[in-house]
Design goal:
This protein has 129 residues and is mainly alpha-helical. It has five helices and two strands. Strands 1-2 form a two-stranded antiparallel ribbon. The longest helix has 27 residues.
Length: 129
Amino acid sequence: MGPLIDNGKPIFLQISEQIENDIIDGAIEEETSVPSTNEFAAFHRINPATAGKGVNRLVENGILYKRRGIGMFVATGARQRLVGARTEQFRASFVGPLLDEAAKLGITPEQVADMITDASITDREASAS
């Protein structure tokens, strides 16, 4: 669990995105517990209600669930749902605009794919040296 750093984003969203990232990265596995809202609040020095709002957002989206008297747990299938949602966000935010700009410049989707492949190879070669 890292510090909250995005000053332009509400803290409760940062809390929920941090948990999402930890699930996607495998730092928090499905059917394991997550810190309580009080633990989040103490760690980040925020109001417990704010931490609770971030956690409850994930409960509402079926990513976390409550076990009465025990705590919050990551739902089975949560990682797959998160990856699917983030993939769609990535497509809408990056791929669509990329292809729109390419079309304006007369660059075909195949040429864009070649550019991405070339950039990927160049990046791998640079990191290997």
